[in-house]
Amino acid sequence: MKILIIEDEFNLADAIKAMLLKKKYDVTIKTDGDEGLDEALTNIYDLIILDVMLPGIDGFEILEELKNENIDSKVLMLTAKSTIEDKLTGLNNGADDYITKPFHMDELLARVNIQLRKNNKDNNIEIGNTVLDIDKLLLINKDTKEEVSIIGKEFQLLENFMNNLNQVLDKEQIFNKIWGYDSEVESNSLEAYLSFIRKKLKLINSNLNIKAVRNLGYKLEVLDEKTKS
Questions:
Q1: 63 or 177: which leads in pLDDT
Q2: pTM score > 0.90 for this model?
Q3: Is residue 68 located within the same domain as residue 26?
């Protein structure tokens, strides 16, 4: 999972990053409010750790802009301010959690894990007649109980689509989310993986479909019986 840290205290940001890397998270740091907002607006991050006091625009302004742009990343705010007014400002403007400096790294990690588990608290994602089992790495038809293994990039891609149902995801957004900015993977690899996923969906008689949207990207949709026939 991808985490963005927007924090101007270099040593703190590096310490948080080092801890999260040990837990196998993919971590990016931005130390300026404006750069942090630009990065957050890519909407490729599962969680944003956001400081309030930043050079450029502050964390509250970033939070407001993320809400206006319908960015679905979880947001955990960091601040040296502990007053109830500051906490309520963050939470009322869309923050998912709030932690006051100084804090223990174990507490921060626990809060990160809680936020990243929330969308998958039952260890699966269920859409239409289809279940993606997060723990067992299985794609399951909940009606017929047909199942097929799905791992690696296929799993990551389908999970991303299922978390963004009916939303058009462009190729760049998908590549950045799954392979990262610096990946040298060729563009036709995406089409190959999507072909594999479609075959697995068909194999279990899923009513999900990954549709190519001309000149825009791809989106996951649920087919009704009339569309399937």
A1: 63
A2: no
A3: yes
